[in-house]
């Protein structure tokens, strides 16, 4: 009887946690993320499923029972296929396109340049990752964190370095959630109060024809430039066409509600589960987190600096804060830019202009991912 009790106890998760404390550490990390998502409301739509996935994924078990996310034929393994194949990120982009109004971007096309400039942080970090000894495919996957776009980071990593999906996805989503902490100090450091007080011109009205042509011309121009971005940008522009056409409201509503919500649940939960302690807690993961923070900071700084450079040639100056919204974190970075402008002058409304930069950042990060994928496949 005593032997049976001992045998039972040695088969429980408590025994495995006692043998390897890393599982307990990861469960605590999941608890912290849950607190940030629920109590602090830091990107709860992302952090809550990811955090619970971390907790569930770090309940230890006997290998070979077909339970874990890395075990063939397990339920979680089949759900994880949507991550490793790029299905969930593409579906998220479909919903994002159906949610996004590109009118502000079409009203001021020059703001597209800020979305492109912010991608410089990606390529600077690529060089840093190569210098630290990561192979090119790993370095490219780490660098795309600078785009501050979780689905894009997951998509590229699944194609180039699937063994790094866990740390890269957690880093990308963590920095997206921490935008209110990371971006404001960089914005204050690289801009003067006089620059932060600049008011933007009112946006012109954009015609329905322009809004209809944008997704068609956008997919042609962007995907002819970077064909490997098709799974993301093809779905993004399809979603936007559904929205702007005005004749398929049922499809557009489904894409921006039920479909994107379902994909977000599975994507977040599976990413969280992929952080099994024995796979996730390694020195390389810490390096990835450090490089991810560098990438995001450089992307923010690149946008701000490029906006200041643009002002040297513009008669009507733009507020350099808009450069910080050139990253792909929609709408978090646009909101921070607007709040910073409001803090300096409550009558300064930058939100719609910042959303223009933000939406161009979504397109820019997808193109950057396509370029990195292309070069690594050629190499």
Would you kindly provide a brief summary of this structure?
This protein is mainly alpha-helical.
Structure characterization notes:
The chain is an all-alpha fold and 379 residues long. The protein folds into 2 domains: 1-60; 78-378, no CATH class. The protein is built from 21 helices and no strands. Helix 6 (87-99) packs across helix 17. The radius of gyration is 22 Å and the shape is globular. The model has no long low-confidence stretch (mean pLDDT 90).
Shape: globular
Number of domains: 2
Structural class: mainly alpha
What is the count of DSSP helices, taking H or I runs of 4+ residues?
21
Strand tally: 0
Sheet bearing the most strands, described? none
Cα gyration radius (Å): 22 Å
**Euclidean distance between termini CA atoms:** 62 Å
Helix content: over 70%
Low-confidence stretches: none
Mean pLDDT, rounded to whole units?
Answer: 90
- One letter per element, helices H and strands E, the order comes to HHHHHHHHHHHHHHHHHHHHH
Q: What is the strand content?
A: under 5%
């Amino acid at each position: 009887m005593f032997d049976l009790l001992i045998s039972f106890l040695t088969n429980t998760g408590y025994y495995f946690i006692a043998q390897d404390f890393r599982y307990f550490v990861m469960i605590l990390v999941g608890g912290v993320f849950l607190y940030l998502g629920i109590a602090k409301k830091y990107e709860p739509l992302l952090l809550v499923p990811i955090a619970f996935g971390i907790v569930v994924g770090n309940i230890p078990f006997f290998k070979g029972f077909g339970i874990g996310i890395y075990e063939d034929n397990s339920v979680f393994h089949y759900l994880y296929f949507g991550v490793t194949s790029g299905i969930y990120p593409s579906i998220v982009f479909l919903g994002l396109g159906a949610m996004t109004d590109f009118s502000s971007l079409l009203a001021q096309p020059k703001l597209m340049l800020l979305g492109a400039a912010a991608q410089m942080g990606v390529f600077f970090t690529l060089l840093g990752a190569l210098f630290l000894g990561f192979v090119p495919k790993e370095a490219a996957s780490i660098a795309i964190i600078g785009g501050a776009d979780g689905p894009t980071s997951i998509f590229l990593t699944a194609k180039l370095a699937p063994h790094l999906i866990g740390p890269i996805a957690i880093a990308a989503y963590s920095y997206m959630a921490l935008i209110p902490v990371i971006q404001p100090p960089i914005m204050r450091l690289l801009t003067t109060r006089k620059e932060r007080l600049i008011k933007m011109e009112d946006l012109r009205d954009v015609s329905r024809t322009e809004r209809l042509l944008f997704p068609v011309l956008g997919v042609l121009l962007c995907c002819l430039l970077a064909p490997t971005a098709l799974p993301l940008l093809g779905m993004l522009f399809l979603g936007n066409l559904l929205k702007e056409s005005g004749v398929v409201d049922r499809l557009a509503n489904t894409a921006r509600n039920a479909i994107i919500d379902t994909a977000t649940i599975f994507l977040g939960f599976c990413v969280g589960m992929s952080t099994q302690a024995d796979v996730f807690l390694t020195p390389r993961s810490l390096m990835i987190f450090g490089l991810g923070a560098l990438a995001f900071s450089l992307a923010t700084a690149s946008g701000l600096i490029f906006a200041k450079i643009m002002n040297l040639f513009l008669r009507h100056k733009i507020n350099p804060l808009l450069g910080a919204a050139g990253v792909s974190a929609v709408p978090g970075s646009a909101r921070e830019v607007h709040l910073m402008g409001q803090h300096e002058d409550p009558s300064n409304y930058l939100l719609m202009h910042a959303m223009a930069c933000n939406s161009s950042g979504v397109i820019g990060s997808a193109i950057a991912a396509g370029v990195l994928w292309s070069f690594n496949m050629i190499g």
